[in-house]
Amino acid sequence: MRFSLHFPGSATRPTDPVAATTIQGDISPDPMICFVMLDLIVDANVDYYGQRIRALERLVAERRRAKKKAAGS
Question: CA-CA distance, 18 to 58, in Å (whole number)?
């Protein structure tokens, strides 16, 4: 079975084509190899979206600090 996954960019540079990643390959009909490949794909997704979530959390925290600073001034 053939698969291809494309991640559009990194968490800090979501639109940067250089940061984009494409994973392609063949999944073996052997169930154990298939399981390992799927596990790697899931790990890649978790890492990618985890980075995006952490970047958004940092952005929200920075905006909150800026609001507090502006309100206190």
Answer: 23
Q: CA 60, CA 28: separation in Å to the nearest integer?
A: 43
Domain ranges of the chain: 2-72
**Side chain identity at 35, as an amino acid letter?**
F
pTM over 0.70: no
Beta strands 21-26 and 2-7: pairing type? antiparallel
Task: Tell me if 3 sits within 8 A of 41, measured CB to CB.
Answer: yes
What pLDDT, in 10s, does the model give residues 33-57?
A: 667 777 777 777 777 788 888 888 9
